[in-house]
Amino acid sequence: MDHPVTGTTEAPPAPQQRPGRGLGSPEAPAAVLATEALTWRIGEVAIVDGVSLQLHPGEFLGVIGPNGAGKTSLFNLVSGLRAVTAGRVLLHGADITTLAPHRRAQRGLGRTFQSSSVFGSLSVRENVRLAVQAHHGGSLALWRRAAAYREVATRADECLATVGLGARGDALAGTLAHGEKRKLEIALLLAGEPSVLLLDEPMAGVSAEDVPELVEVIRELTAHSGRSVLMVEHHMDVILDLADRIAVMHHGALLACDTPDAVMANATVQEAYLGEGL
Ligand SMILES: Nc1ncnc2c1ncn2[C@@H]1O[C@H](COP(=O)(O)OP(=O)(O)OP(=O)(O)O)[C@@H](O)[C@H]1O
To answer: What is the domain extent for residue 80?
Structure first.
């Protein structure tokens, strides 16, 4: 199916400045992550249909759209889990379209681990130490050096503190509540020291009372670090709270990509997306 792609030929506006972001220069800064006419077809069906997006340094870009719009498929193309049919993915200006996922991760593109990659029988701290160790090559020689061991342990504790799990390091990962599991997944992501984070529905399964705390953890990911975030999320209030800009997908295509206010006021978006009662 072919869908018109709007808003893909013009350069997006520079992200709005938020305190501590170091953004807001009159010219849009170079994109840290860009997709160019990214397309994934299964047979004749375009699951992702010519999507061109730009993520700027320190920017928080939310991705929304009805169920089946192609958001997760877009993430799969960007992170390398799926091979593109057409189009390109650029990270810091370099073409990474055909790179394997772990090569993209080495270049700073991090995607939240699925819960299945958390070792439930290990402690929270041990999980993050393994992720730090993996990021640094995971050689046994590294572990024989006491100084290197301490370095890994310190970095793991920093990751846990960043997501607010500093006091939960000794808990078995398998015993964590949903909200804490999401935090651990983010800590595992941070262990890879990414400059660009892809968060796929981080609020999924999280109880309503735990959402505000997780929102603050995610806000801090870009607040002072220069990291950029691309986040798919169904909770509109969370997206509106966090995002500098919002990309709206519909039937695989990009319907709009603009500031939250502009997206909410966009008649096409209202008709195609909000009109469906999401
Ligand atoms: N491997 C696949 N084979 C066939 N169809 C697929 C495959 N992966 C995704 N699809 C279809 O592509 C469409 C987009 O799926 P995708 O999961 O990317 O949407 P989404 O926007 O993330 O949806 P949701 O919000 O429900 O998670 C859906 O119709 C889905 O059924």
So the answer is: 1-108+230-278
